[in-house]
Amino acid sequence: MIPRPKPERFRLRRTMMFMNAQKPGLIKDAYIYGVDSIMLDLEDAVAENQKDAARFSLYHALKTIDYGDTEVIVRINGLDTPHWQEDIRVCVAGGADGIRIAKCESAQDVLTVEKAVEAAEKEFGVEVGRTLLMAALESPKGILNAYEICAASPRMFGVAISGGDFRKCMQTKPTASGIDMVTARGMMLIAARAVGIQCFDTVFTDLDDMEGFINETKQNKEMGFDGKSLINPKQIRPVHEIFAPTEKEVMQAELMVRAFREAAAQGIGVFTVNGKMVDVAFIPGAERTLKLAKACGMYEGDLV
Amino acid sequence: MIIEKSAVAGTLESSDAQVTVEPAENGIELEISSSVMNQYGRQIKATVLETLDRLDVKNGRVTVVDKGALDCTLKARVECAVFRSCGQSDKNIPWGGAIK
């Protein structure tokens, strides 16, 4: 049994890779890829008549495999299926770091899941509040209710848009420019930032179109996403490269944080670094850049 | 648990195992075939018997076709087959109890 540390609500989540919970042969190597989070799937990747078998596999995969620093999230079946309650029991009993709520459309959906999670935590002697939640918004209704969904529970660490189902509802197809989803992505991002949680983009399903994948990822970064959902290990490295800060950004951030701490110790609130005004408002962003830089192996200092 | 009817769990894909359980009356009859029989045959047998013991299965014919499954996969397949044979695989599984 590999005990997992208490999940962190806010951590680096640039990449979140889907894996079929039915296939421990794949899962056992997950940490090698260097992905930030893995998403073990009980939903669409598992055939309807194998939902039971997938849970037994998942339980042992959670309990026996050492994932190291890789976060382990489980995507459960929708609330309109007969599966989600047992899915939650197995996630909590197995000690998953978090649960992804599929097809989430309202704050009530989050509360329904949260109630079942809390009951499972009590049943299996897990610390109440340990299991984190995230929601996948897959419909126009989900997007319109993004704010209330994000704010529904202190367990919520993020929201993700799910392109396949969303485009189906909107009667659109993926476009190179991203115009088909720009409004939905933007609305979800604003809601997530208003509440102060993370926001993740959908998967890119054409594995042969790396250029399209890279362009979409660049747009994700420019729009303000924290990370992207992936379906294949070969998509990990490009995302990490695109989300990495530049060396100049890292140096600037380091200077700012150091100068701010020194200034604050002397009772100074606003000052300049390389000719640019800096005050407390810049510091969380600079610290985030340093954390990102550390994860990318670009910063080895002790400021974060 | 009592094996009430035949049930199967798992596939013949690489790194998996297919486990079939059938009702029987005189203890456990275990048949194993594996692509790694020489190296891991004993380990596979021990894991299957240990899992059946934890589920308190006293009688049954158990057939394992192993394709290089990890121990945790093997356990999951045996457990699922037994729970399916009793029609109890869908809910209220004793996670952390008989399943561990």
Structural overview:
The complex is a heterodimer of chains A (304) and B (100). With 304 residues, chain A is α/β, with parallel strands linked by helices. Chain A is 43% helix and 15% strand. In chain A, strands 1-2-3-4-5-6-7-8 form an 8-stranded parallel barrel, surrounded by 4 helices. Chain A has a two-stranded antiparallel sheet with strand order 9-10. Chain B has one domain: Ribosomal Protein S5, domain 2 (2-Layer Sandwich). The two termini of chain B are 16 Å apart. In chain B, helix 1 crosses helix 2 (71-85).
Task: Please outline the helices and strands.
The complex is a heterodimer of chains A (about 300) and B (about 100).
Chain A: E1 15-20, H1 24-27, E2 37-41, H2 51-64, E3 71-75, H3 84-94, E4 98-101, H4 107-123, E5 132-137, H5 140-144, H6 146-150, E6 156-161, H7 163-170, H8 182-195, E7 198-201, H9 210-223, E8 227-230, H10 236-243, H11 247-265, E9 271-273, E10 276-278, H12 283-295
Chain B: E1 7-9, E2 17-22, E3 28-34, H1 37-54, E4 60-66, H2 71-85
Parallel strand pairs in B: 3-4
Antiparallel strand pairs in B: 1-2, 2-4
Helix pairs in contact in B: 1-2
